[in-house]
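#struct-pred
JK: can someone run the complex with flavin-adenine dinucleotide? inputs below
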Amino acid sequence: MPLPPISIEFFPPKTPAGTRKLHKVREQLNVFEPEYFSVTYGAGGSTRSGTRQTVLDIRAAGCAVAPHLSFGTDEPEVIGELIDTYRDAGIDRVVALRGDAPSGVGGSGQLRYAKELVEFIRERTGDHFHIEVAAYPEIHPESRSIEADIHYFKEKVEAGADRAITQYFYNADAYFRYLDLCSRAGITVDIVPGIMPITNYVNLKRFSAGCGAEIPRWLDRQLESFGDDTETLFAFGIEVITTLCERLIAGGAPGIHFYALNQSDPTRQIIRNLS
Ligand code: FAD
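RT: done, structure tokens with the ligand placed:
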């Protein structure tokens, strides 16, 4: 089974040691020739300079890179300048998001929907950027229904998005059903599954509760049973994610987007298994 194009997501490191580590991780993962690396962005600009620097470093190393972007509560011109910087650096892909306000930060302003950012990028730079947006096979946590969520997803596509990357999930059926529903709603862009390797049960559980990704009971129980045995959990996680990716690829997934969390080992092992 041929491996579809892969993309790999990082977050901007906060320390010089983190930056050195990410440099090495990128080199290790670059051997798999990803279509692009992407770098997350803290809505409200909390990582604005860190994201920009990480993006420009990856670009300077000769790799394709897609910065994540969101208006947050910033003035459009602030984001416009960032977009211009990326375009001038030869970057031609972005991931356009609404973002989530960082925890602990009060709601001083309304977050602006991703669709508005897609429109803004198109108005400012025409067709220069390939725009990726987010999609939710297990429904965005703030959505009142899957239909409403798909309706707003379609609006992002009509505003000019070229492709979508999903929130991570561990239930392949949710993804395939979502593809069907999107197709029936007239959405024709590719929807690339986002894959979160499993390396830490406590963190995964906390993060999943916040973003609305379901950990199936059988998986939750098994992970919990490993307790402090991180080695066994890691090996089990690789096996589970490899099987999930195999199913997705066999079902025609147009790509795989890895949430690598600035680590190389899990993503490397999964890609090797798939190759
Ligand atoms: P939107 O598409 O704007 O949707 C947000 C919610 O509003 C949904 O419930 C939608 O149904 C609803 N909605 C949309 N339009 C309307 C409307 N007109 N009226 C009423 N409701 C509406 N977060 C970060 O902070 N930084 C990142 O770098 C980041 N990267 C991500 C990468 C990927 C691949 C994914 C899947 C998520 C990422 N996130 C990131 C998380 C994301 O920002 C959150 O899930 C956020 O809550 C929603 O962002 P969105 O772009 O999907 O928003």
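RT: quick notes.
The pocket of flavin-adenine dinucleotide is lined by residues 40-43, 68, 95, 97-100, 113-115, 134, 140, 142-143, 148-149, 152, 156, 165, 167, 194 (CB under 6 Å).
The chain has one domain: 6-274.
JK: thanks, will look after standup
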